[in-house]
């Protein structure tokens, strides 16, 4: 796999580690996949602080998807850039039409651990290109998750993808995490993805920036480190995590936005 695709092992490790600790996120699938297919990661990629953060980010996405499904069980769920993530199992999406999308080489690896059925489907394709959309039903209401992938799309590709989605689905709820421009600039030194060879990421300074002329509307910002999750840490770990990942400095680097149309 190429360097960007190899980044999927970083959140996989983090989710497996935290799940084993019994805090923040229960992800037995991540534990199993990591145990069977552990890869060599650098020191930054295996940081416990990053593991906590990855698990909290995933949990926030999970809780949001659960909320959307509770509002309308007839929606279609689309997870763009799914990697080896087990969200379809974590949120209890039985009976929900669900599509996990990633590059062909990622989906080929994913098929070793996941099986399709009448509701669950894996789609191979480049998110920024329209070809894969022929596999997704049109004119449905969709819940779209873009976790840990927006920062790999150049601004023109991001705007093109958002336009494609808004034209394909009659209505949708979408949530994604992004770097700010400052976060992207500092990524060269602080980001663990550099350990797997990724050298270029992109920032988003304003939530409306990727919307172009589409009908997509920005709704609100979400916290990736809500207090109820941070408080599952104890002692000095809780204090240091708040300083490193949950304070004002972190917000200048990394954000989470919700959209709808």
TrEMBL record:
Highest taxon of source: Bacteria
Alphabetized Pfam families for the sequence: LCM
UniProt keyword Methyltransferase, yes or no: yes
InterPro entries linked to this entry: Ppm1/Ppm2/Tcmp, SAM-dependent_MTases_sf, TcmP-like
UniProtKB keywords: Methyltransferase, Transferase
GO molecular function terms noted in the UniProt entry: methyltransferase activity
GO biological process, one term: methylation
SUPFAM superfamilies: S-adenosyl-L-methionine-dependent methyltransferases
Entry protein name: Class I SAM-dependent methyltransferase
Source organism of this protein record: Solibaculum mannosilyticum
Taxonomic lineage from the root: Bacteria, Bacillati, Bacillota, Clostridia, Eubacteriales
